[in-house]
Amino acid sequence: MTNNRLTLIFSFLSGIIFAIGLIVSQMVNPEKVLGFLRIFHNWDPSLGLVMGGGIALAMPVFFYVKSRKSEGKKALNHEDYDLPTATKITPQLVIGSLIFGVGWGILGFCPAPALVTALAGYSESMLFVVAMLAGFWLHAKLIKN
Amino acid sequence: MYAWIDVASFTPWSALIGGLIIGLAAAVLIVGSGHIMGMSGILKSSIVQLPKLSWQLVFVIGMAVATWVYALVFGFPEIEMGQPIWKIIVAGLLVGFGTRLGSGCTSGHGICGISRLSSRSIIATILFLSSGIATATIFAMLQS
After folding, report:
1. Nearest-CA distance A144 → chain B (Å)
2. Whose CB among A26, A114, A117, B92 lies 3.0–4.6 Å from A132's, allowing a Cys bridge?
3. Which has the closest alpha carbon to B99: B35, B44, B37, B57?
4. Terminus-to-terminus CA distance in chain A, angstroms?
5. Which residue of B has its CA nearest to A65?
6. pLDDT value of residue A30
7. Which of B5, B102, B137 has the CB atom closest to A93's CB atom?
């Protein structure tokens, strides 16, 4: 099987699992997310446990991947592990993260749950996704200048 | 502590199991293809590379297939929406712009970045959690 075909298979599989995880965890419900972010008003710790669960499983896997990479080994698709190399805390990282957080705190939507609910037919989510794409575009225009 | 937590809405088991499944998705992608599961980057790349059948597009298609099959078999859970249009647009713009400027979102920085102990991702996550909490809290106060 070609590298590319393997890549697509793993990507497809991962996308499926990701969507299932988002639905099962109820992170597709913005009220659950807002319930976590509104720490002083009827706090719902669920999102914390979602992230905790995700990191608990992913962390040992990433450590394994990092050690494999340092030994020159490759992913199952025979390609190099594409681990980000940037280390500096840049103004873009700081400001971008703060801005993202504000947008997230308004509705309780981040990219993936918005996409899943848009796919499920919620028109509000579809509008959110369109606005999000516009945000992507605005950023691309900004860095071009 | 108990008085503070909304016991009625806290759903520990679905949260934990769902979180593990999300972690599994990230694991499959990094082990299988060497890619980071960062939704904002994946979504943007899938569109920018159209009409190419990029791995990012295939990832998004996987999400779509799973969503539709889940909806067919179990019914998609009822979700409370009904937010004003201006709010949706502003939130979407900020999320879109912010995730690209900050190079990631809750899956990319929050799950994958923290799992690799990336200081950039740890900081990014602390920051977007902080501004997210502040924003949600302010809106909650304004509403009451």
Report:
1. 13
2. B92
3. B44
4. 43
5. B31
6. 97
7. B102
Tell me which residue of A76, A58, A108 sits closest to A9, measured CA to CA.
A76
Residues of A in contact with B72 (CB under 8 A): none
Average pLDDT, rounded, for chain B:
95
Chain segment A90-106, per-residue pLDDT in tens: 999 999 999 999 999 99
**CA B11 – CA B8 distance, rounded (Å):** 8
Q: Is A72's Cβ below 8 Å from some Cβ in B?
A: no
Q: Are B131 and A102 in contact (CB under 8 A)?
A: yes
Q: Chain B contact for A78, CB < 8 A?
A: no
Low-confidence spans in chain B with pLDDT less than 50: none
Q: What pLDDT is recorded for position B109?
A: 97
> What's the mean pLDDT when you consider all of chain A?
96
**What is the C-alpha radius of gyration for chain B, rounded to an integer number of angstroms?**
17
What pLDDT does residue B2 have? 53
Distance separating alpha carbons of residues A115 and A70, to the nearest angstrom? 35
Question: How many Å lie between the alpha carbon of B108 and the closest alpha carbon of chain A?
Answer: 11
> Which residues face B5 on adjacent strands?
A43
Give burial (CB, 10 Å; 0-12/13-18/19+) of A129.
buried
B28, B126, B139: which to substitute to probe chain A, counting the most A Cβ within 10 Å? Answer: B28
CA distance A18 to B30: 13
- Is residue A48 scored above 90 in pLDDT? yes
Which single residue is written with the structure tokens 């979102």?
A: B105
* Polymer length in residues for chain A: 145
Instruction: Answer yes or no: is pLDDT of A2 > 80.
Output: no
